[in-house]
Amino acid sequence: MQEADSTEVSAKPKRSFYAARDLYKYRHQYPNFKDIRYQNDLSNLRFYKNKIPFKPDGVYIEEVLSKWKGDYEKLEYSHTYIQWLFPLREQGLNFYAKELTTYEIEEFKKTKEAIRRFLLAYKMMLEFFGIKLIDKTGNVARAVNWQERFQHLNESQHNYLRITRILKSLGELGYESFKSPLVKLILHEALVENTIPNIKQSALEYFVYTIRDRRERRRLLRFAQKHYTPSENFIWGPPRREQPEGSKAPKTPAPPTSGHHSQTSMHKKPKDSKNPSAAGRVNSKAAEDKKVTPREPEEETDWPSSEAGSEAARSGDPEREGDADNSSPQPEEAVAHALEKKERASPSEKDEERENRNKDCESPGETGSHDDAPLQ
């Protein structure tokens, strides 16, 4: 029994500060982002207009959509196309692929030819994962080949990086609403049907947090919390209600003046009201009592409590600060300032961090780790 307990404890998931920081920057439109390319360098748009091939393979988008569809071996083992099919405002592992610019995003959304092919590319990758797009609003369901492909998806965990990239790219190019149905299906298959159990960590750590609408993220996290096993290992979303109640108990008798003499305090109230500073102290105590009072899950932050033992919670995670309720005056400004300081780090420091992260992900297919890995 002791061995089983220790195994369960060691298997408890942990949050990743780097994942939270990356996804915070994505959801908030990359604070301090500056286009480093000329506006007329529309490489991603020209690729989707079939004007240029993707590098280094030299294949045009029409050939990818017509000849690569259904060729699961090629889609699995080629690692240079995904950055072109689903571009982002951040560098991937294919350094021939160009990052999106804000101007290019707007031009892309206005180009029907590019949008049509982009949706075909999305459908092709969904089929590769065993999923099908069933309508124009983004709803998805199991594809005919779902059993074979879900088994493959459960074992080839480097594809989780691809799914994160796809979700991000959908949001950049005007299809934010397509993300929630896909994430909901993946959570359902992982937590309820148990068809792709290996994906649940990436789904909760990455996929959910690509969604920019905080209410939608919380809805998905509540669904996941309901079905997650073991339930005590669920470290995402609102903290458990019993934790604030436990911490509230010792704080109740703390103020000596209001202990058992509430009536006396009532009689003294007119005298205190003449003293502005005393009234201010009474108001501040009332505000503190309100903070201690547990709230419904809908009102909690979607970042886990520090009780979960996450590295992110201990490190002042940007997701916690950015998504917290308005308990602090300007949470997002504080986080943006912290991120700005991080961006100002010396080139050597940034290169060292990137090098360390790349070392951790030299063979993502073998390690199966999504944490801290650069997107493909």
From TrEMBL:
GO cellular component: membrane
Protein name: Opioid growth factor receptor-like protein 1 isoform X2
Protein encoded by which gene: OGFRL1
Protein family according to the UniProt entry: Belongs to the opioid growth factor receptor family.
Gene Ontology MF: a single term: opioid growth factor receptor activity
Residue stretches making up the Opioid growth factor receptor (OGFr) conserved domain: 39-243
Cross-referenced Pfam families: OGFr_N
Bias (Basic and acidic residues): 286-296, 314-323, 334-376
InterPro entries: OGF_rcpt, OGFr
Record region (Disordered): 232-376
Domain of life: Eukaryota
